[in-house]
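**Reference record**
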Amino acid sequence: MELDRSEVTTIRMYPTTLGELEWTRYGAQDEEGEWSVDINIGGGIYTAAYTVESLTLRDFEKVSLGTLLTKHEARGFNVYYSDLVPTALVADLQEHLSDTVLLLERRIQSEMSSVPDVYLLGNRELMNLVSTVTGINLGFEDGYYINGGQLPGIFMRTDLPGTDVRRLLTHEYIHHVFDGLANDEILPAWLTEGLSKYYEFDTASSGPRSDATRLRQFRSTDLARTAARSDSLFSLAALDNQNEWNSRTDQDELALQYAEAYMAVRFLIETYGPLAGKDLVEVIGLGTSLSESLETVTGLDIRVFESQFNRWLERWEDPERAPLSNYLIELDAILAKETANSEQRAENLGTSMTRQESISSSAALAQSTEELVAALQLLSPPERARELHQQTEDHLGRVLEWLSLEFQASQTQDNVPLRAANAMIPELSARDFTLKRNLSHLKFIFNIPD
């Protein structure tokens, strides 16, 4: 409930086969104090009370940077956080950054020499104050990295969903890593932003709530591929200058430049090896031009590289999503036939029939469902769809039992199997709802159209 006792949300839930319900609420922005939640289940109100307490970090040193910040000493770096930043989030991000350092070391086979200080701001207003002091013209960005000067470090807001906050910290840290590998030589915007986006996705995919990363990743890849197929990509030259990159304000252009840069780096790494991005940065760090550096790493000058990238992107299909999409097309056809059977049954119930017609119609529905069960058993689900496949098998199996009971009742004119069939209806409704919700969720995550 809200403070005025109004309802926060409604969710339709069904128990597992063990009779259990599970519900998770992410309350990262909850304030300290006593909380309670009222849950209305079938007209019965159940109340659960809990307390939100602030984690004590024992940080006392304060610094002024447009606003008052508290200094927290982490392992090898400092975290400065403003008002409105939960201390638990400070601790979580410290751990997240340490994990990211180790994972990135393995990915690019380089030991990280340093970790920059991190400045966490409770909202965009506070971030604007700090950006003024640090000399940054804050545009659309929620975070930025300063390399060198009196205040090097990562500056970011934290009033975002938890996955976005971690993603943002990872992205800016990767800028720090590759700026170091480039020996402070200026990297093309498409390369530095593409590398940050590539390793942001890569590291987050092995972290908590990886599906949130998959969703963002597939939307990005599809946006770039669509632009390639419609010949509306930016030229790489148009994505070379960081100031021009930062000056764009159109939301569609912003999304496309990040998507295209990510896919350009993905093409580089998947075509020329897992260390090709790092190698290209290090060659640029020797003072070599982009075109010369590309030729050193790939054997191609930039014009040929860009041409090959465009052709690759037009034909690109994700190796995980392609088999999943093919499987879901076949599954959709089976479920569409089941829906048609359900509609036919409803029509039959509303139609006056002789006993023989009722028997024949019931037999036809049961026979059709048997065929659907057999068709489903012929499918080979990819790894990600195995749980959904099992749910579909269980659901259709129970539907077949239900229709078989109705067929038996129509044959024998016995109410016992009919009552048993009617008793199954709430379970079947729950299974149907859960199956279709999970199917829709899977399509949403992998950006597969319904």
Strands lie at 33-41, 44-52, 62-64, 68-73, 78-81, 118-121, 143-146, 153-157. The first helix runs from residue 87 to 108.
